[in-house]
Amino acid sequence: MTTRMEQDQARPDTAVRANVARDTWNVLTRELKPVARDPFTLIFSLVQPLVFLGLFAPLLIGSSGQPVGETLQWFVPGVLVMIVLFGTGATGSNLQYEMMTGSHERTLVAPLSRSSLLVGRALKEIAPIVVQALIIVLIAWPFGFTINVPGLVIGLALLAVFGVGLGSLSYTLALKTKNREWLFWGVQQTLIFPLLILSGMLLPLDEAPAWMSAVATVNPVNWVVQAERALLAGDLGAITVLWGWIAALVLAVLGLWAGVRAIRKSS
Amino acid sequence: MANEPIIRAQGLTKRFIVKKKTVEAVTDLTFEVDRGDLVAFLGPNGAGKSTSLRMLTTLIPPTAGTAHVVGFDILKRPADVRARIGYVGQLTSGSFAQRARDELLSQGAFYGMSRSAASRRADELIESLDLTAFATRSVQQLSGGQKRRLDVALGLMHAPPLLFLDEPSTGLDPQSRANLWQHILDLRVQHGTTVFLTTHYLEEADRYAERVMVMDKGRVIADDTAAALKANLAGDLLTLGFASAADAERAVAVVQGLTDRDVRRQDAAVILTAPEGDALLPAAVRALDAAGIRVSRATGVPPTLDDVFLALTGRTLREAGEGEPSDETEESDAAGDAASVTTGAQS
Question: What is the mean pLDDT of residues A157-168?
Fold first, then answer.
């Protein structure tokens, strides 16, 4: 017994204590590693927005009869929000996969504060959003899209906040649906297209019937799209910008709250 | 502190509600484990081994009862428990999207290690667990054995005084299994780590564990060294062959005079199970010779833990595993569903 005591004294108890900020940083940097190791995955997931930019924008230009630059000025902000909607909106599937394969369980046994496991993941979403949005903007530029630098910077910040909220909700859905992948995708797909169409992202809602306009008014994605349009056009003081920020912030707070709640119950 | 057992469980019980029916996965689990021990939970799938481990590692709260692990209450101080244990779950610990070495470094950071200390420790483990050639591969690309060795490396990253292993060698070929065990035993000798594992492989419990707790239907039904369990609960299977059934019939009476165990005749053979059969067998042959009954064949088969399980439950381990309605994975499913009802203190 004395030898054991000596051993214990020789090895002081240096066990780590949970610390939300440090843990969040550690979770965030871990999540960024695969992206940093293989940045081409970011380009790959750009295929969908690029298809919309390349195949849908020409139709818009044709039907609106307006100059290319003006149509792009209207359409590109929507594509940026689309990146978040499709990319970040699906990010929960990564967590769900890790729940099924086992590494999520490992992080639950690690001395990490529960909230950091969600917040770190949600914050990670900012990186691909910013990189992908910049690529889209740069591709649209030579075709007549004008870049307003302050507007773009604030627009990216708004997208980031929106992404953190949507990403958190996606993780929440993953945690709630657990090993039922079909349920995750079922809910995700059911929500994403109405949110997309009712945001006026692809086609203006001006001609929409009254009930559609009514639903669109309560769609936070719609507010974010309108704010992005104003911001990227350089109209930083527009009232829609304020509404966009309110929508994104409310979504972020709700998403993080629901996500942290869900991860505390995770096992 | 030092003299305290490293695990002390009192009346740990876990009930799940599955399809509106209450299922008792673990019932009244009470035991202690001393520092430095190597202990195995042995039992069929669905016996409650994983559920017990998940309670002890703070993954799920018990419905009743309590436990102290590395000196801390699993319900009141889960963060302190987590900081001092290593856990290798049944599935893959590394994220499939991550590179093996990156996961080790992240794990080090999770446990508060400095970047340089984590890097040193990762390389040490990569080397000792034969992962050098795969360190920069993604977990997805690793073979089953390589994944499992990475799991163990992740569990050992912060050199925990107590390591939990849930079915560490399931799905491994015999060679990989032997390698893995060599690593675990080496690390144990080096660091004096207490190892607590679950297994449904008899050979594994028999060969490596110093203490075996046999679990069935949520309860520990035996708790001793493998050798003592086999000697006390099973015994060697002895078979003596004769020229005719009549000879065998006469032999039964003679052999029965040497043991209090039940002696049976089967065709032209006499069968019995008895402790210390290795001594009984030559004695029986001599006694039969003296009685003028010629023994034509004699075999003695030492018992396995399966015989122990059979003696305790009337079923073999394999039968028990197949007969169970729910396996361990379903249990963990249910754990998630039931968690909302019973969630305890978590940080």
Answer: 96
CATH at residue B202:
3.40.50.300
Residue A41: inside a domain, yes or no?
Answer: yes
Cα distances (Å, whole numbers) of residue B78 to A195, B25, B81, B160, B225:
41, 21, 5, 15, 30
pTM score, two decimals?
0.83
- In this complex, do A111 and B107 lie within 8 Å of one another by their Cβ atoms? no
Q: In the sheet where B219-224 sits, what is the strand order? A: B85-88, B162-166, B194-199, B38-42, B211-216, B219-224
Q: What is the pLDDT of residues A87-123, one digit of tens each?
A: 898 899 999 999 999 999 999 999 999 999 999 999 9
Report the candidate in B14, B7, B17 with the shortest Cα–Cα distance to residue B334: B17
- Tokens 């950091």, residue located: A116
The span from the CA of B160 to the CA of A101, in Å, is 23
Who contacts A78 (Cβ-Cβ below 8 Å, separation ≥6)?
A199, A200, A201, A202, A225, A228, A229
CA atoms within 13 A on the CB side of B219: 6
Q: Is A113 on the interface with B (CB under 8 A)?
A: yes
pLDDT score at B340: 35
Number of domains in chain A: 1
Residue labelled with tokens 């075996």: B212
Whether the CB-CB separation of B176 and B145 falls below 8 Å is answered with yes
Tokens of A210: 């009254």
* Residues B112, A265: C-beta atoms closer than 8 Å: no
State the Cα–Cα distance between residues A217 and A222, nearest whole angstrom. 7
Nearest to B95 among A8, A26, A98 (CB): A98
Q: Is the CB of residue B50 less than 8 Å from the CB of residue B27?
A: no
Give the closest-approach CA distance of A9 to chain B in angstroms.
9
Q: Are B154 and B275 members of one domain?
A: no
Q: A221: domain range?
A: 20-264
The parent domain of residue B250 ranges over: 235-302
The encoded tokens of residue A4 equal 């054991």
In B, which residues are within 8 Å of A17 by CB distance?
79, 83, 112
B64-69 and B72-73 as β-strands: parallel, antiparallel, unpaired? Answer: antiparallel
What pLDDT, on a 0 to 100 scale, did the predictor assign at position A14? 63
For the packed helices A149-177 and A220-232, what is the interaxial angle rounded to 10 degrees? 160
End-to-end CA distance of chain A: 37
Q: Does A29 touch chain B (CB under 8 A)?
A: yes
B218 in the same domain as B74: yes
pLDDT tens, per residue, chain B with 347 residues: 557 899 999 999 999 888 888 888 999 999 999 998 999 999 888 889 999 999 999 999 999 999 999 999 999 999 999 999 999 999 999 999 999 999 999 999 999 999 999 999 999 999 888 899 999 999 999 988 899 999 999 999 998 999 999 998 877 778 878 888 888 888 788 888 999 999 888 888 888 889 999 999 999 998 998 888 887 788 888 999 999 999 999 999 999 988 888 888 988 999 988 888 888 999 999 999 999 999 999 999 888 888 888 888 877 777 776 654 443 443 444 444 333 333 333 33
Which tokens sit at A49?
Answer: 């927005």
List Cβ neighbours of B83 (8 Å cut-off, separation of 6 or more): A15, A16, A17, A111, B111, B112
Q: How many domains does chain B have?
A: 2
Q: Write out the DSSP string of A160-182.
A: HHHHHHHHHHHHHHHHHHTT-HH
